[in-house]
Amino acid sequence: MLQERVEKLLDEAFEENKSLFLISLEINSNNQIRVVIDGDQGISVNDCIEISRKVEHNLDREEEDFSLEVTSSGVSEPLSLPRQYKKNIGRTLQVKTADEKIEGTLTGANEEEISLKWKAREPKPVGKGKHTVEKEAVLPYSAIVEAKVMITF
């Protein structure tokens, strides 16, 4: 019952601010509600406050006691939704698949797959030594075990 009411309130909040979206919603047996959100242009503290108020002000603590936490998806958290990949086009990702780890620039993302480009050192086809080659990969989301944005300073 609480889950349905919170989901409905979150849907309303995201209708009011279409640049925000839900990453996860968890409600444990003690009615501790944890909402993780993200946004197409990032997240501000005010965005978290607005979502928190929308939920908290429309639930009755007299009817059912709860605690509420609204947070943004952390910088170290893996990407989980196509919308998150789309907002990170042009950034460097570290992508793990079942059999390899790729660090490359995200060049495209749609609802089914992502495109990455990177440079690698490979043996020359003729002669000794290595040369740098540009590589590309198109990976369906189903092949991605984990993907994180690499932060550079």
Automatic annotation (TrEMBL):
Residues 19-75 form the Ribosome maturation factor RimP N-terminal domain. It comes from the Bacteria. Its main location: cytoplasm. Keywords: Cytoplasm, Ribosome biogenesis. Gene3D superfamilies: RimP-like superfamily, N-terminal. The keyword Cytoplasm applies. It is found in: Cytoplasm. Belongs to the RimP family. Required for maturation of 30S ribosomal subunits. This is Ribosome maturation factor RimP. The gene is rimP.
